[in-house]
Automatic annotation (TrEMBL):
<dbReference type="InterPro" id="IPR002347">
    <property type="entry name" value="SDR_fam"/>
</dbReference>
<dbReference type="GO" id="GO:0005737">
    <property type="term" value="C:cytoplasm"/>
</dbReference>
<comment type="similarity">
    <text>Belongs to the short-chain dehydrogenases/reductases (SDR) family.</text>
</comment>
<dbReference type="GO" id="GO:0032787">
    <property type="term" value="P:monocarboxylic acid metabolic process"/>
</dbReference>
<keyword id="KW-0560">Oxidoreductase</keyword>
<dbReference type="InterPro" id="IPR020904">
    <property type="entry name" value="Sc_DH/Rdtase_CS"/>
</dbReference>
<dbReference type="InterPro" id="IPR050259">
    <property type="entry name" value="SDR"/>
</dbReference>
<feature type="domain" description="Ketoreductase">
    <location>
        <begin position="3"/>
        <end position="178"/>
    </location>
</feature>
<dbReference type="InterPro" id="IPR011283">
    <property type="entry name" value="Acetoacetyl-CoA_reductase"/>
</dbReference>
<dbReference type="Pfam" id="PF13561">
    <property type="entry name" value="adh_short_C2"/>
</dbReference>
<dbReference type="InterPro" id="IPR036291">
    <property type="entry name" value="NAD(P)-bd_dom_sf"/>
</dbReference>
<dbReference type="InterPro" id="IPR057326">
    <property type="entry name" value="KR_dom"/>
</dbReference>
<protein>
    <submittedName>
        <fullName>Acetoacetyl-CoA reductase</fullName>
        <ecNumber>1.1.1.36</ecNumber>
    </submittedName>
</protein>
<dbReference type="GO" id="GO:0018454">
    <property type="term" value="F:acetoacetyl-CoA reductase activity"/>
</dbReference>
<dbReference type="GO" id="GO:0042619">
    <property type="term" value="P:poly-hydroxybutyrate biosynthetic process"/>
</dbReference>
Length: 241
């Protein structure tokens, strides 16, 4: 029977590519999104993948949304915590709202999602959790103290949960993408983008599909010995230990 995978922020950008790659690999996929109904409807029409609207920053909404997915598609085997936002500002100009929105959406969301599925995964002795962090959580980025903190937190969260899940057949890994050609990066002004590309040894932005193929790899049944890993996919821009 096909395994069930939930991808947060699964209708656009990197998440779109992850949802499609998991479907192509044989999973029953649920693509979550926040509020862009138009993009979600287009995604659903093009891919045939069902979409589920809830805010990953809300524990109650995650719990309810995941219960709906489980009722409609079956018990959840794979969670990809991909949804994320940026609210950039240097710290001396950053508001508490900018800080809170990013921490809640990019970090607390992983707690909200994993807490809601972990007991079921433990009972069934199987689970695959893949978190999407960022190069900027590894190296820090000026103007992104909130985002860097959230993404670094996601790496620590991954390492802790990997230890807790290991004896129960649950693997937990994190991917740290570099700059990927999505709307999030399109928002960066071109002169800034040109400077960024000049620091990427591969000489270009990454593609969403290049992240998606790694998610499929980590989500696979035969990836059971890979847990607690941080997979860096950044064209050589930052080579972490
Ligand atoms: P996009 O902005 O293209 O897409 C974001 C997706 O997340 C959308 O589907 C959006 O839903 C959803 N989303 C946002 N907030 C919420 C929320 N509160 N609840 C549920 N869903 C939400 O992002 P990217 O594809 O560029 O980024 C995906 C992930 O990869 C993020 O975690 C990002 O931090 C990370 N990343 C991206 C990099 C890049 O270069 N693009 C580099 C490194 C990491 P909706 O359509 O409804 O708004």
């Amino acid at each position: 029977m096909a395994r069930v995978a939930v991808v947060t922020g699964g209708t656009r950008g990197i998440g779109h590519a992850i949802s499609v790659a998991l479907k192509d690999a044989g999973y029953k996929v649920a693509a979550n999104y926040a509020g862009n109904d138009e993009a979600a409807a287009k995604f659903k029409a093009e891919t045939g993948i069902p979409v589920y609207k809830w805010n990953v920053a809300s524990f109650a909404e995650c719990k309810e949304g995941l219960a709906t997915v489980a009722a409609e598609l079956g018990a959840i085997d794979v969670v990809v915590n991909n949804a994320g936002i940026t609210r950039d500002a240097t710290l001396h100009k950053m508001s508490a709202e900018q800080w809170g929105a990013v921490i809640d959406t990019d970090l607390t969301s992983a707690f909200n999602m994993c807490r809601s599925v972990i007991e079921g995964m433990r009972e069934r002795a199987y689970g695959r959790i893949v978190n999407i962090a960022s190069i900027n959580g590894q190296k820090g980025q000026m103007g992104q103290a909130n985002y860097s903190a959230a993404k670094a937190g996601l790496i620590g969260f991954t390492r802790a949960l990997a230890q807790e899940g290991a004896s129960k057949g649950i693997t937990v890994n994190v991917i740290a993408p570099g700059y990927i050609n999505t709307e999030m990066v399109a928002a960066v002004p071109q002169p800034v983008l040109d400077k960024i590309i000049a620091t990427i040894p591969v000489g270009r932005l990454g593609k969403a599909e290049e992240i998606a193929r790694a998610v499929v790899f980590l989500a696979a049944e035969d990836a059971g010995f890979i847990t607690g890993s941080t997979l860096t996919i950044n064209g050589g821009q930052y080579i972490a230990a």
